[in-house]
Design a protein that fits this description.
Layout (H helix, E strand, L loop, with lengths): L1 H14 L5 E7 L3 E4 L6 E11 L10 E8 L2 E12 L2 E14 L2 E5 L3 H4 L2 H7 L9 E2 L9 H13 L3 E5 L3 E2 L6 E8 L6 E11 L2 E14 L2 H11 L1 H22 L4
Helix pairs in contact: 5-6
Amino acid sequence: MRSLCAGLATLLLSALPAAAEQLTIALSTNNIRIDSGFTGDALTVFGVIERDAATISRNSPYEIAVLVKGPTDTVVVRRKEPLLFFWVNRASETFTAAPSYYALNSTGPLDEIATPPLLARFGLGFANVPLQVAGAAEEATDPDFREAFIRLRKEAGLYTEFAGGVDFIGTSDSVFRTAAWIPSNAPDGRYTIEVYLFSGEVFLAHQQATLNVTKVGFEQFMFEASHNRALLYGLACVLLALFTGWLAGVVFRRD
């Protein structure tokens, strides 16, 4: 029985395709610190495609997709509708585990790099951003809410997509680089960098790295106070407002 299991395992392993290409990637930095003077920073991703010695040249060129995703969050999207003379929030939809940041760079148009099933599998492209609806994971969602969510994130500079944003360095077809802009309003937390290698719309290899975005100094103090000491934080805000109003009255008081 044991020999039979070993034989089946050997047969299954021999049926798996050998990994002809491998990816090695490096980041320009593994930590971005957000302080009072932070206006944004660029993250550069470098990569090398390593081929096995027995690998023959492929008929199609290599294509690269680099996806940078921020920590997930729960977001409520509301739809405003007219009511008499006012616009009020009526319907809403809650997205769970939505990426707070999403930057996708590729060597070319996505529909020329991989098949739609592969793009959906890896979450590549705005149409494939994984947005699960709270309490209705298996129900069809209203596309208007999804489009509104994507549009708002794009307007905030948190969702970007750039076909042609990955370049091969020099005449080489194995060394590449790309850059993603981390804006000043980017949330803190652990970011993941996913790099995918394709050729002829066939998936070949994948590599992953992480980036830590952290608040430091006064910003971190205020963030922790607002979340962990809400009562004291609220009282401090009220006292600060009263003091500011009193000071303004003293400064601008007319005799």
